[in-house]
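Request: When convenient, would you put together a sequence paired with its C-alpha cells?
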Amino acid sequence: MPYACFKLDVTDHIAHIRFSRPEKMNSFIPEFWRELPEAVDEISDNARARVIVLSAEGKHFTSGMDISVFMQGALDADPTNREIAAEAFRHKVKSLQRTFSALENARQPVLAAIQGGAIGAGVDLATACDCRYASADAFFCVYETAIGMTADVGTFPRLMRLIPEGWARQMAYTAERLPAAKARDIGLVNEVFETHEALLAGVMEIAGRIAAHAPLAVTGCKAMANYARDHSTADALDYIALWNAAMLSGEVIKESYVAKTEKRAPAYGELKAKKTGP
C-alpha cells in the first residue's frame, strides 16, 4: 500500500523503509505516527521479511516531529481546564511513544542508516532500533530542550542505556549536535561510512548477512537481547533456557551444518504469520 511519509519494498528477505519527504527534511507529520507502526507491525506479524532497514532520501535522516503534530488533537486541548488538557496530552504522547516501540517490539532486527541530521524525535526513533549506522556528515541532536520542552517519545529510557550517562545528559541539557565520529566513539552508532551511498550499501550488506541466518535464531537473539537488557542475569539465563527448550529446532541446526558441508546456502523456513482470527 502507498504511504504518505515513506516508501516500502521487500527484497531478498529485507524490508526497506525509506523516508521520502526530503523537501521537508523528512519531518514526522501526523500521518507518520500512524503509518510507521502499521507498516512495521504488518512486517513483523506476517513475517514478510527477516530484517528491517530504515533509511532516508535527501540530505537529512529527519528533522524530527513536524510542527503540525503540535497543532492537532490533544496537543491543542482546551487550556481552560488544566487537568483535562494534561490528561489528553499524556494520552497523545503515549500514542506517539507506541510508534517507536513498534520498532523495538518487532520480531525482526531493525537497522537504521542515518545520514545528515537525526534531530529531536529522530533520536527517539534511532534509539529504538537494534543497530545504528551513520554517514560521516551525520549528527544527533536532542533538540527538544532548545524549544522549551523535555524529550518525551523515548530518548531518555533508551539513550541512557546506549551511551555513557554523562554524554546522554550533556546531549539533553545542551541540545548540542553530536557528530557521527563521536557517536561511534561512545557507542551510539556501530560504524561510520564516508558517504550516503556507502552508508546504504554497507547497511544493506549487513542486513543481507542477518537475513541469511535462520529466522527463528535471529528473532530469538532479539528477544533475548531485549529481555536481558531489562532483567537480572539470573532471570535472563532462566529465560534463554526456557526459550531454547521450546524453540530450538534440530532440523534447522542440521540444515545449517549440511549446507556448510555442501557449500550452499541453507534453506530455512520462515517465521509463522500471526493469526488474526480463531
